[in-house]
């Protein structure tokens, strides 16, 4: 909705009565992946999640074979919790906001393909374990150090400009899209853009700044910020448009400045 | 410290659970934090509007006393007033604390926190962070609790579902049983006290504005073990939500505020493109029935009218939806004033509401009812506490917008010290209680085994749909006693059919069928509490409306409904409401004090 011109939304013309959902299945972490295809009646406002819910009720493949219901994660269904992320027609995104109509139109086919994210341990079917991302938040001290939660009045005055800039970073829902897309991320070799952006969020805050060294230290190890190859894939897939490359750039600058002062202090 | 350190289990890591966890950790004690989803993904992320607190930065003379008045008036005088007062007094401190934790609240020119006006008040009392305040507040608490996790005070069990309490022979709560959602392993969590913070029960109605974790299953389990459930019949329905195949998404009231018009085609089942339907073939039913207020009638009236029109079969294409039309307003005005919320509609429906009328329908939104607690967040079971949407304490018969987030944090902040106080003095009774964990584990394991073993061909998801439909049709906006009775009959039939469900997942690793079956049973129990509470309350108050009893009846019903479990049906009793601070008066929307 960037322009004020009404561009009639493109929809499937004469959609066929049915469409297919091709799903990558895996019984558990150790099992190998297989594919199953399901056929569903087309309805205009179906999203990927409602299609999965439909299959879950009565899991029978297009070949008529009874199977187990596919397993996936969902919670808010409003693209704010990040839990439902998967790879849809080759692109990583939230499945709650992926409309079947759009997908069929884009791929110009009768099939939507679902796969789990590949950079995280696959629990079963479309469900993955992203606990590593929360560990990364520990590594970069992604919080503000308080004296205590008792009443000490308001926080520091902050310009609306800075508040808005921080707000943009603070919308990160730990979905992992950026990590899935980053060519450098994988095998624990690189902490990834999400954690760097969260470090930036707190380094930008007047109180948060006090702990900046702690946070930067978390980014200077072997898996640290130096691994970024500046491919910029991350920023293109982030569903909340978090300025990831900017965070990386500014954090690199903080690292340089800090190293300088650290050296002067010696 | 270690020797005096106490152990607490908190179920739920939304605003309420995290608030309590932070306070307990800060006091030097240990917390096991149990949550179905990673706590950072809790339902609290969905709140958009803001958080209330009478900080009075706008020179309007706002005060906690006025916040108290607005809250109990909006709640139609069903809330005990002392805890509401305490919450309103604490609210400014809560907001300041979030400010110190680094929440990117929207700011004024001077760099102070900005406040906006919300429904049910004349004051700028609502702090907000963009259009995702709940998400921002939840993240702030999540960060603080992560710090305590690193510090060794908090241990998280994410991806674990609480199934039942562990009670000793004297009905004292000594911990709980939870299930690992990957392995289905059951584990007993021993605790000196347990705090429930599991949020609302929207999924009982099938589709609602709530997240998929909002089953109410955990509090239903507590209820079935003897905890009292209060005011269950008070369910808030938001007039404008976006009907989806999977859920109902909230459409903010501001769409009507900016001039949105509500209508349906005059001819039932008219399938034409709405733009091709001429003015005189459109029925602007709100404008017709309420010439003075038109589309801006108060929320509960709008909800009832839209609901009724659809129930009578006049909805768009015969379905449960009406048009909310903004297309007569210039597109650039709409972009400027409503951009963010119209984008949500476009993202999920695929239509641009600046050019295509939105299709909306009322959606179940919030439960005012919940576990009964006293003024210190203690339930009737010693050792069991509750906070957040899952307790009944603050909102009476109707909740004001932006009052829930503050009540969740308040609840957590009161429950924590209260639980610590209790735990310091409770007798451990180690020898006496050791066997109770094994006994409860065994019982829960048997329930799982039974579910896995059952055959009979009933489909759990279809049963859930049937329950959602009948609850939505009969126990939401407009309530008739005969239909409520029929609903309870249907619920009992569903319970009976439950014993014949065959789970359709032969792979038990990370299966969703077993947890869902368990939730379904608990939801049915709570559905009966909601339905029978409504049946018994022969008056209209706040969100509870009966055309056959259209007035508020303070003499008979200015009382808290209390449900206690028995095998046949919930046993209902009534407790007087403490109205010692603000004298009850008639709630009159025509004077401009509307509720959100
Ligand atoms: C769309 C929408 C918009 C809203 N906007 C506003 C607003 O602007 N302002 C406002 O004040 N309020 C708003 N509300 C209401 C408010 O968001 C909720 O009432 C509030 O967030 C509830 O918080 P909570 O901490 O009680 O529970 P939740 O945030 O719901 O968290 C519940 C927790 O319990 C866990 N849990 C549940 N069951 C179990 C179990 N069996 N075992 C283990 N863990 C379990 C979950 O994993 C989760 O961590 C809105 C609500 C909705 C639906
Ligand atoms: S810029 Fe490229 S390498 Fe760096 S984090 Fe983003 S995707 Fe990865
Ligand atoms: S930065 Fe964006 S893509 Fe990465 S986890 Fe956060 S929200 Fe997801
Ligand atoms: S379910 Fe929360 S982002 Fe999709």
What Rg of chain A, in angstroms, do the CA atoms define?
A: 22 Å
Rg of chain B (CA only): 24 Å
Largest sheet of chain A: 5 strands, mixed
* Level-1 CATH class name of the largest domain in chain A: Mainly Alpha
Number of strands of chain B: 21
Return the string of H and E elements of chain A.
EEHEEHEEEHHHHHHH
Q: Largest interface, with Cβ-Cβ < 8 Å?
A: A-B, 77 and 80 residues
Give the number of helices of chain B: 15
Question: What name does the CATH topology of the domain at 239-362 in chain B carry?
Answer: Flavocytochrome C3, Chain A, domain 1
Q: How can the largest sheet of chain B be summarized?
A: 6 strands, antiparallel
The CATH superfamily label of the domain at 239-362 in chain B reads: Succinate dehydrogenase/fumarate reductase flavoprotein, catalytic domain
Based on CA inertia axes, which overall geometry of chain A fits? elongated
Account of the protein in words:
The complex is a heterodimer of chains A (266) and B (596). By secondary structure, chain A is of the alpha+beta class. Chain A has two domains: 18-128, Ubiquitin-like (UB roll); 131-148 and 155-265, Fumarate Reductase Iron-sulfur Protein, Chain B, domain 2 (Orthogonal Bundle). Chain A is built from nine helices and seven strands, in the order ββαββαβββααααααα. Chain A has helices at residues 48-57, 100-107, 131-139, 160-170, 177-181, 193-203, 212-217, 233-237, 244-265, and strands at residues 18-25, 34-41, 85-88, 91-94, 111-115, 122-124, 127-128. In chain A, the strands form two sheets. Chain A has a five-stranded mixed sheet. Chain A has a two-stranded antiparallel ribbon with strand order 6-7. In chain A, strand 1 (18-25) and strand 2 (34-41) form a beta hairpin. Chain A starts with 17 loop residues before the first strand and ends with a helix. With 596 residues, chain B is of the alpha+beta class. Among the domains of chain B are: 239-362, Alpha-Beta Complex (Flavocytochrome C3, Chain A, domain 1); 435-551, Methane Monooxygenase Hydroxylase, Chain G, domain 1, CATH 1.20.58.100. Helix content of chain B is 37%, strand content 17%. Chain B has helices at residues 15-26, 64-74, 81-100, 133-150, 217-224, 254-257, 285-289, 299-311, 331-349, 403-425, 430-453, 460-474, 481-498, 513-536, 554-557, and strands at residues 7-11, 30-35, 51-52, 115-117, 124-127, 154-158, 160-167, 173-180, 186-190, 193-196, 229-230, 235-243, 248-250, 261-265, 282-283, 322-325, 358-367, 370-371, 384-386, 559-564, 571-576. A six-stranded antiparallel sheet of chain B has the order 13-12-17-16-14-15. In chain B, strands 6-2-1-10-19 form a five-stranded parallel sheet. In chain B, strands 18-11-20-21 form a four-stranded antiparallel sheet. In chain B, helix 1 (15-26) packs parallel to helix 10, helix 3 (81-100) crosses helix 10 and helix 5 crosses helix 14 (513-536). Chain B is globular and about 75 Å long. Mean pLDDT of chain B is 93; it is low at 591-596. Chains A and B meet through helix 1, helix 3 and helix 4 of A and helix 1, helix 3, helix 4 and helix 9 of B. The structure holds flavin-adenine dinucleotide, iron/sulfur cluster (2 copies) and FE2/S2 (inorganic) cluster (FES). One iron/sulfur cluster binds at residues 182-184, 193, 228-234, 244-245, 248 of chain A.
């Amino acid at each position: 909705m960037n322009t004020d011109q009404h561009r009639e939304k493109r929809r499937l013309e004469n959609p066929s009565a049915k469409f297919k959902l091709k799903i990558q299945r895996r019984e558990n972490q150790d099992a190998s992946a297989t594919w199953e295809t399901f056929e569903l009646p087309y309805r205009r406002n179906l999203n990927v999640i409602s299609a999965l819910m439909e299959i879950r009720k009565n899991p029978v493949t297009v070949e008529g074979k009874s199977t187990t219901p596919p397993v996936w994660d969902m919670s808010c269904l409003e693209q704010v919790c990040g839990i439902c992320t998967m790879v849809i027609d080759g692109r990583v995104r939230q499945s709650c906001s992926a409309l079947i109509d759009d997908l069929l139109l884009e791929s110009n086919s009768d099939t939507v393909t679902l796969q789990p994210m590949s950079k995280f341990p696959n629990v079963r079917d479309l469900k993955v374990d992203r606990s590593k991302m929360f560990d990364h938040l520990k590594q970069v001290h992604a919080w503000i150090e308080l004296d205590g939660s008792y009443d000490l009045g308001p926080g520091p005055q902050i310009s609306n400009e800075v508040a808005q800039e921080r707000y943009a970073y603070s919308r990160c829902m730990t979905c992992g899209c950026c990590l899935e897309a980053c060519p450098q991320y994988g095998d624990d070799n690189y902490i990834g853009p999400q954690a760097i952006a969260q470090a930036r969020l707190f380094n930008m805050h007047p109180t948060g700044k006090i702990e900046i060294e702690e946070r930067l230290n978390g980014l200077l190890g072997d898996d640290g910020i130096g691994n970024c190859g500046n491919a910029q894939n991350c920023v293109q897939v982030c569903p909340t448009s978090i300025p990831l490359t900017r965070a990386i750039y500014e954090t690199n600058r903080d690292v340089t400045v800090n190293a300088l002062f650290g050296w002067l202090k010696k | 410290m270690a020797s005096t350190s106490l152990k607490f289990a908190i179920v739920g890591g939304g605003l309420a659970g995290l608030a309590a966890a932070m306070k307990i950790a800060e006091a030097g004690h240990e917390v096991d934090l149990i949550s179905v989803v990673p706590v950072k993904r809790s339902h609290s992320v969905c709140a958009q509007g803001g958080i209330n607190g009478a900080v009075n930065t706008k020179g309007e003379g706002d005060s906690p006393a006025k916040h108290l008045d607005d809250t109990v008036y909006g709640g139609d005088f069903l809330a005990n007033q002392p805890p509401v007062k305490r919450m309103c007094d604490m609210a400014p401190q809560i907001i300041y604390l979030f400010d110190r934790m680094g929440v990117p609240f929207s700011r004024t020119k001077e760099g102070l926190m900005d406040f906006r006006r919300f429904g049910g008040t004349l004051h700028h009392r609502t702090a907000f962070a963009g259009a995702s305040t709940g998400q921002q507040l939840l993240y702030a608490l999540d960060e603080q609790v992560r710090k305590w996790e690193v510090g060794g005070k908090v241990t998280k069990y994410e991806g674990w579902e609480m199934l039942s309490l562990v009670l000793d022979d004297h009905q004292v709560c000594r911990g709980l049983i939870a299930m690992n959602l990957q392995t289905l392993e059951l584990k007993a969590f021993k605790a000196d006290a347990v705090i429930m913070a599991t949020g609302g029960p929207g999924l009982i109605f099938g589709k609602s504005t709530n997240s998929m974790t909002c089953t109410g299953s955990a509090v239903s389990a507590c209820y079935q073990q003897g905890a009292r459930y209060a005011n269950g019949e008070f369910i808030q329905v938001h007039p404008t939500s976006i009907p989806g195949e999977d859920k109902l998404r909230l459409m903010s009231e501001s769409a009507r505020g900016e001039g949105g018009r509500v209508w349906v085609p005059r001819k039932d089942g008219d399938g034409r493109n709405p733009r091709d339907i001429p003015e005189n073939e459109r029925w602007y039913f709100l404008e017709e029935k309420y010439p003075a207020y038109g589309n801006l009638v108060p929320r509960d009236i709008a909800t009832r009218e839209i609901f009724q029109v659809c129930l009578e079969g006049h909805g768009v294409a015969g379905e449960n939806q009406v048009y909310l039309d903004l297309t007569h307003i210039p597109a650039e005005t709409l972009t400027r004033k409503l951009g963010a919320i119209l984008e949500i509609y476009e993202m999920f429906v695929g239509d641009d509401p600046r050019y295509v009328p939105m299709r909306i329908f009322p959606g179940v939104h919030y439960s005012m009812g919940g576990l009964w607690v006293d003024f210190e967040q203690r339930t009737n079971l010693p050792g069991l506490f509750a906070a957040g949407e899952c307790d009944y304490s603050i909102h009476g018969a109707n909740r004001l917008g932006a009052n829930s987030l503050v009540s969740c944090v308040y609840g957590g902040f009161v429950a924590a010290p209260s639980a610590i106080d209790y735990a310091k003095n409770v007798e451990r009774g180690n020898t006496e209680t050791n066997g109770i964990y094994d006994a409860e584990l065994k019982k829960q394991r048997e329930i799982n085994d039974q579910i896995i073993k059952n055959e009979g061909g009933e489909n759990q998801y279809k049963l859930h749909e049937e329950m959602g439909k009948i609850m939505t049709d009969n126990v939401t906006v407009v309530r008739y006693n005969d239909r409520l009775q029929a609903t309870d009959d249907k619920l009992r039939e569903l319970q009976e059919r439950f014993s014949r469900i065959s789970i359709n997942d032969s792979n038990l690793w990370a299966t969703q069928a077993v947890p869902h079956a368990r939730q379904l049973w608990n939801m049915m129990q709570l559905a009966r509490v909601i339905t029978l509470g409504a049946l018994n309350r022969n008056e209209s108050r706040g969100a509870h409306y009966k055309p056959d009893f259209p007035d508020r009846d303070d003499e008979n019903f200015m009382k808290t409904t209390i449900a206690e479990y028995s095998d046949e049906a919930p046993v209902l009793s009534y407790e007087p409401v403490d109205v010692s601070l603000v004298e009850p008066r008639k709630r009159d929307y025509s004077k401009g004090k509307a509720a959100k």
